[in-house]
User: Fold these one by one.
Assistant:
Number 1:
Amino acid sequence: MEDHEFERLLKVARLKLTDVEKERIKADIEEVIGYFDSLDQVESGEEPAYHPIRVPARLRKDEVVEFTDIDALKRQAKLHDGYILGPKL
Amino acid sequence: MKIGLEVHVALPTKSKLFCSCSMADTDEPNSQICPICLGFPGAKPMLNEAAVSSALGIAAALHCNINKEISFVRKVYFYPDLPKCYQITQMEGAIGSRGYLEIEGKEVRIRRVQIEEDPAQIVREGMLTLLDFNRSGTPLVEIVTEPDITTEEELRAFIANLRSILYYLGVDINKEIKADLNISLAEVRVEVKNVTGIKSLIEATRFEIERQAEAIKNGEEIARETRGYNEKNKLTESLREKETDEEYGYIYDPDLTTFEINGIEHAKAVYITEVSQRLTEGTDVDPKTIKEMTMLDRRALGLINKFNGKYKLRSVVHGMQRFQKYAGNLNAADHKIEKSIALAEKGVAITKEMIQDIAEGKEVKVKYEKVGNAELDDMIKKFLDKNPKVLEEYRRNKKTANLVIGIIAKESNLHPKDVARRVNQVLSAY
Amino acid sequence: MRSFVNEFLKLEKPKGYYEELVSEISMLNKEYHAFTNINSKMIDCAEGSIPFSSKANICVKGFETTAGSKMLKGYIPPFDATAVERMLGSGSFSFLGETNMDEFGFGTFGLNTETPARNAFGREYVAGGSSSGAAVATALLKYHVALSESTGGSISTPAALNGVVGFTPTYGTISRYGLIDYANSLDKIGVMARSSGDARIAFDIVRGKDRYDTTCSVEKINGNKKTKLFVVKELMEKTEKRVKASFSSLLDKLSSDYEIREISSEILSKSIAPYYIIAMAEASTNLAKYDGYKYGLQYEGYNKRYNDFFTEARSSFGDEAKRRIILGTFIRSESVKAKYYTKALRIRALIIKEMSRILHEGFIISPTIPIPTPKISEAASLTPLENYAIDIFTIPPNIGGFPHITFPYGYMDGMPLGAQVITEQANDYAVLDFVSDWEEEFEYRYKHDVGSL
């Protein structure tokens, strides 16, 4: 894997690594991808199996049920006038 | 010039797309939230049947191919308003594809109609980013067109027709319409993201067309970029940071499944352009009149359909227009509107007083419902006897007849045309 | 049928029993790190309640739930996972605490977390992963069942290494609502216990449709007994000699009741790559949401713009999580998605087809892991790929969502040996019955019996 491709992946995934980590993790990843390439030798004409079982369609009726403990949700974050504080744009 | 649109429309459901939180209007931030629309660890989505039904109605109305089975994908990107840092949306398994919407004389192709969830609302307060998750999880459809729109007029017509179709499916997009535009005068495609409201959409397009035209005129190169619309200054501006490396990395959302669409009922589309054509065929009524009256008014269309035939279409239209004008709206019982239509049919010049009487349920006083020539001649003669100078005036200037017609018509509640029928004859013979 | 739960219900409990239990397990936990968090309120539980634990990726309302990750430090779920709600609602069970695990379930040995759990049979040995704590807790406590979770072998492996029964049901049988996602199309809540009977009791309480999980859809469970046991040649080839020898002796014992046959299946030995591709692709989307301000870790860098904020906050992921996020992001890239992700899904379909055919005829049996229990120091020196290869027996049933169970069948140098039996989808009772039969002839051994009466 080219260095710039590795850097692109880090950027897309919002991860940063030290130079030492980069060297180690990139080597691991290259080894694993090399192993994944062994799939090329397996033929499959099957449709993709998104789940192991057939998951039947189940839809929810359009009914309002209020969540009972909204404070417990908001408590997890920082609040400002009832708004949840997010990072700067 | 080519313009393509991605229009986002909120669907009229009681609860959110994947959870049971209320969609009602509220001023209190973060008051209609739960672990699912906040994307808490462990929460899972459950698809709202009404949202699917509503989206299905829209896809069908836009003549799309309806996918027998729909599925959802995760679109991964990082932004503070996106609780899971992926949006649940649709790709290949979108509810509709390859449709069209007809505007005057042409079809604008629809590439795709897809269901997706709305992110949270961001409120900026100084440097602070404040998040209100009440909006998070609102069911949306995104309508993606091919770049088939070529003028501002076509854009207006597209939006007007789309709005009418959506209106009849129970979706009002007046304020809520959110769209991304792509506009290319030359080869290069410029995107304008997150334009809100119909007015802004037109203004942003106009600005962008002028900007690109100006650049071409000056021999400048147009950058392939994403721009935002500044509502306050009415201009588009380059977005500061373009993540060229950004990749959404779509995958099938494994928390959901593939849903069969068979058996889900949906509302039927109403195409006002066609309806107006059909109604006015063989009449002297301009289809545009019907279209304008009914595009965003289900009640008006209902009344026209109800009374057309029993009365002449012209009378129906005229009676309704008078009622609308003097009463301010058509929110009255059918039999009251019918009274106004009946007056029009009789050729009565409908006055504000008459509509008020109808609205209040009083008897409408019409002196002459239908006057014969003899009766009309008498009225004119009586008027001349009272105003002898008029005759002298008429002999000098034939246009004085118009004055006579106006006064008599007003006093007698007759239609001026009716009065005109005899005035010249009586005047010249007197 | 042996059941410690039923035995417990019949026995008289001395006064102060639960206080003693909590204090004793808390003491032992300092050595074994089975629990990340012990519920001190358990001492006030209803008379006769049986303790149950849940893996730290299963949400318990009001109780810190971290999935073994620094990213979720301080996260207090505002709701119970459906499985937890049903356990509590049964009236027989009380919540004892959350059990240790590899961060987000990423690991074979339980080492990918701040303070790894230690093997109940020898603290210098690995506990197995990712449900390390659940297995150790089950090996420490006499009357207890553990709700745990498997994506690619996270129940079987630690259960085998700690000499307990580990049951992984058919995909979609137990609601995942409240389970912190690793890979949604592979994650399955299951049960560890000291007997197949206890696993079955808990399984019947928690399973069944849930209006909060679309994928939870398997309602009817069968128990069709099979008389054939298949041993897959290609998988056995990757097994260490001594493990092979012990396993042969198990087959000898079973041969009086079952017809044992060696079969060949090339595709089953190819399941590791597609499994990890699917798991990493899904995991990398699930882990996007951890960005340092909504819950759990509070990064606080509000002077930084959002992209830098996220990137800094996400430094708190462990190495294996970072590797899987990067690999998952790579796999999802438009340019290679068809080559890896879509291909892996197609191969999964092939594996399911092949296994369904085989499992219709009989059970598949194998050792649970192909090597003897490694010491922590030995396991720590393995590369990621060597780690993944250890999952050779557990991945086929997991990628295909087939119910399977692991059970202790012997002891080697004082360490337990585990074997795994797989059956058809929705035939879960059959493997529970298989182990129940085994338990009539084989007594499991433990070093600790906390809470014994």
Number 2:
Amino acid sequence: MVLSLDRLTKTYANKKAVDNLSIEMRPGVYGLVGGNGAGKTTLMRMISAILEPTSGEVLLDGKNVADMGADYRDMLGYLPQDFGYYPHYTAKDYLHYIAVLKGIPRREAVSKSKHLLDEVGLSDVANKKIRTFSGGMKQRLGIAQAILNDPQILILDEPTAGLDPKERVRFRNLISSFASNRIVLLSTHIVTDVEAIADRVLVMKNGRIVSQGSIRDLLEEVEGHVWEIAVEPSETDKWEAETTVANLRREDNRTILRIISEDPPSDSAVSVPATLEDLYLYHFPTERS
Amino acid sequence: MRVYKIKKYLRLYRGVEETKKIDETVFECRKLTAVGIMDDHRRTDFFEFLSEVFRMNGIQILGGQIATLILVCLLNGVVDDFPRMIPVFIPFFVMAALPMLYRAELSRMNEIELATKNSYAQLQLARLIIIGASDIVCFTVLLLIESAVLKGSMGIVNLILYVLVPYMLCVTIMLRLMRSGKRDFYASIRLTVLVSFLWGIIALFKPGLYQASAVSIWMISFITFAIFFALEIKHLIINVKEGKTYGFVS
């Protein structure tokens, strides 16, 4: 199974949200990282066939997904970034409703819903109205609906937003066990989630993929650009204003700054191993993950 | 061993032995039975889908239409020369169906619903079938009541046309709005109010149109709107057959 994006472009008024983007995805977990307005959501909507590209195609094994129609959507699971729910539905009703839309027969829908509510830790509240749920619980219900039809292609837009650390670990384990022989594309601002489960990372900026590869490949890209220097606490603000500071910590009476920079920021700077968070800041210096 | 038996034994297992190996085996079995369920790939056909949509949305749709029928019947008792006012009230039936037709947009569920196998077109077609069926019943009741009140002073053909012409006009424009991708609940509400208002104007200023002899004008309008209505339904059915989503998120 190969999902190809062929010169995919989406233009809104004068702005190119996605700009001539071409990539090929095979089974595995893909982490899509990028700053706000990078085009991640637009890209995911086009892959989910709910947004028409201005030009270019999304192809599954060479077939245009727009032509595949229902056959493609039957293979698809999608969790949008910003989604609503029917507040008077219970979690169980909600999954049954989504099962109807996904064409899953009733009996099967009942057992699948039960199984998935258990998987996402909502079996205790299966009969409670969604309006009583916390943000994290709604998000977990959203994840359950996305995998209800056992999709071959799973698109998750900011799936870990609103989840607490324990829920995020549960989510990672769920996706890791689910992902074999499937294409999973997830976008997130939380770089540690990508680090934990993604086989490959796509870095998106201004509608284009500026970097892609395995985490190791990408870390090599930023290797030699991450430095640590010890400064006086009073100098911290100055360094933060002038450089991209990934982290700072106190050690004795000094402040240790972790700086992303092409060149050593000072003579005393020591090169240190890079992390994916450093890579993110390398590409998006104005944002902190 | 059959899956239901495995499931039964798994349910009965309480972990009394508490050996790690048995727990692992049980865990693996649970995963396998879950996978077994997942592997079934049968999908519902349109009639199964329609019955499921009826089960999930039917009460709200019927409730809205019956409530509108009761309201219109009550108005029948207080409005003089009611037949002239029938076209004014018919858009209310369409208005009552709008919250169901636009519920995904109103609850921000549209992205999730658009990305499911049964296209949005199919969902809307199923809802329109349920709405249409309930409206046939409602309109029949309305016409029976009106015929009984009028005791034959107005031809039944005229009454039927007073119902169907504004109804088809409303539904046709609403479907056109949906198909254009600019689906907007409030635009459709405005549309139904406008159609109702338009017929109010006609009833007030063109009373001659409600004479029995004006049936040919209504018939021409009926044929014209029926053609556009049929074309919109054709578009919808083509979308269903091609599995299209009936509008994109833009």
